């Protein structure tokens, strides 16, 4: 009888202790699940280790969010000089950042009629990735199926890195930490398959805005409103520091 | 005998507290790691820049026009004639 009593006493204590342990770990697990749900499922950081993102990119992203220049659509900021693509959700949360390949020619222009030329007929000097604000989205293409157009008018799209011409060594260029060897395409923006399928494609299914920073053109010409705002802010800071 | 069980219960109680503390440490470490991740730092920089830019004015009417233009443009892309991308 005494043993049975002890047995009865022992069981609830152990059950209570085990129960509290299970609850404790279950609640920790739930906290992790919530964290994961709050984070975009496909958040990816593929930028080379130690590579920073420029203040211009950050300030432009902040300006886009503050002014709702993206009109509730997702957006990407593309920094050709640093060979980076940053993808933001409609809410302005960063979904991913990755290196990219761009047009082999340094420059920001798009020659009229370039979309009608065969790739081999595009003059070397015109193989640029044009700079500016572009409303992009998926649409049909010749030979590429459903394509995510950045600048449809000049036939610039963003897609998975192509390996049709081995001598171009696109995969190696994309993998190298230096942005200096990332100028190789006829104008399109190439990213890794993982980044395109995991971040870019799902984010821009219903279109979005692409901000391509210029190589040479002054920022005031490419993004006049942003440049004006930036100048005002800097003037304000200077006045405040006096 | 009852004293022995009380001792066991106390030990288990200490184990629960230790487990919870360790769990809390793990969560804190995870959060700390997350806060320190490069994307989160970037996100924080962008949020800060957005707050600084909040004073930037935008005409509501122009914003609506832009939205209409965007929607129209995206629809055009979906249905436009196919062309060859520049690789």
Please provide a written account of the structure.
- The complex is a heterodimer of chains A (242) and B (87).
- Chain A has 242 residues and is α/β, with parallel strands linked by helices.
- Chain A folds into two domains: 1-38; 44-234, L,D-transpeptidase catalytic domain-like (Beta Barrel), CATH 2.40.440.
- Chain A is 37% helix and 21% strand.
- Chain A contains six helices and eleven strands.
- Chain A has helices at 2-38, 55-67, 170-175, 193-203, 219-222, 224-241; strands at residues 44-45, 75-79, 84-88, 94-99, 102-103, 132-140, 146-151, 156-160, 183-185, 189-191, 208-212.
- In chain A, the strands form two sheets. In chain A, strands 1-4-3-2-11-6-7-8-10 form a nine-stranded mixed β-sheet, with helices on both faces.
- In chain A, a hairpin with a 5-residue loop joins strand 6 (132-140) and strand 7.
- Chain A is globular and about 55 Å long.
- The N and C termini of chain A lie far apart (88 Å).
- The model of chain A is unreliable at 1-39 (pLDDT under 50).
- Chain B is mostly helical and 87 residues long.
- Chain B has a domain at 23-48.
- Chain B contains three helices and no strands.
- The model of chain B has no long low-confidence stretch (mean pLDDT 73).
- Chains A and B meet through helix 1, helix 2, strand 4, strand 6 and strand 8 of A and helix 1, helix 2 and helix 3 of B.
Describe this structure in a few short sentences.
The complex is a heterodimer of chains A (242) and B (87). Chain A is of the alpha/beta class and 242 residues long. Chain A has helices spanning 2-38, 55-67, 170-175, 193-203, 219-222, 224-241, and strands spanning 44-45, 75-79, 84-88, 94-99, 102-103, 132-140, 146-151, 156-160, 183-185, 189-191, 208-212.
């Amino acid at each position: 009888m005494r043993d049975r009593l002890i047995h009865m006493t022992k069981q609830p204590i152990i059950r209570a202790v085990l129960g509290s342990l299970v609850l404790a770990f279950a609640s920790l697990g739930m906290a992790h699940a919530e964290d994961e749900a709050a984070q975009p499922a496909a958040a990816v950081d593929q930028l080379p280790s130690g590579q920073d993102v420029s203040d211009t990119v950050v300030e432009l992203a902040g300006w886009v969010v503050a002014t709702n220049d993206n009109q509730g659509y997702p957006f990407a900021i593309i920094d050709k000089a640093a060979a980076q693509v940053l993808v933001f959700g409609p809410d302005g949360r960063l979904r991913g950042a990755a290196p990219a390949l761009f047009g082999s020619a340094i420059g920001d222009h798009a020659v009229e009629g370039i979309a009608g030329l065969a790739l081999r007929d595009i003059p070397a000097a015109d193989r640029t990735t044009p700079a500016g604000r572009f409303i992009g989205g998926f649409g049909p293409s010749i030979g590429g199926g459903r394509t995510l157009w950045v600048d449809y008018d000049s036939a610039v799209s963003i897609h998975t890195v192509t390996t049709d011409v081995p001598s171009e060594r696109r995969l190696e260029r994309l993998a190298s930490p230096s942005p200096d060897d990332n100028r190789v395409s006829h104008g399109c923006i190439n990213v890794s398959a993982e980044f395109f399928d995991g971040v870019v494609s799902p984010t821009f299914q219903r279109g979005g805005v692409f901000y391509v920073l210029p190589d040479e053109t002054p920022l005031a010409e490419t993004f006049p409103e942003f440049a004006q705002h930036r100048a005002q802010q800097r003037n304000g800071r200077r006045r405040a520091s006096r | 005998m009852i004293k022995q069980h009380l001792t066991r219960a106390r030990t288990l109680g200490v184990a629960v507290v230790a487990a919870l503390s360790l769990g809390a440490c793990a969560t804190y470490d995870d959060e700390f790691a997350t806060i320190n991740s490069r994307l989160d730092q970037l996100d924080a920089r962008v949020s800060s820049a957005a707050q600084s830019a909040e004073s930037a004015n935008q005409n509501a009417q122009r914003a609506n026009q832009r939205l209409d233009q965007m929607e129209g443009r995206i629809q055009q892309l979906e249905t436009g004639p196919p062309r060859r991308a520049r690789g």
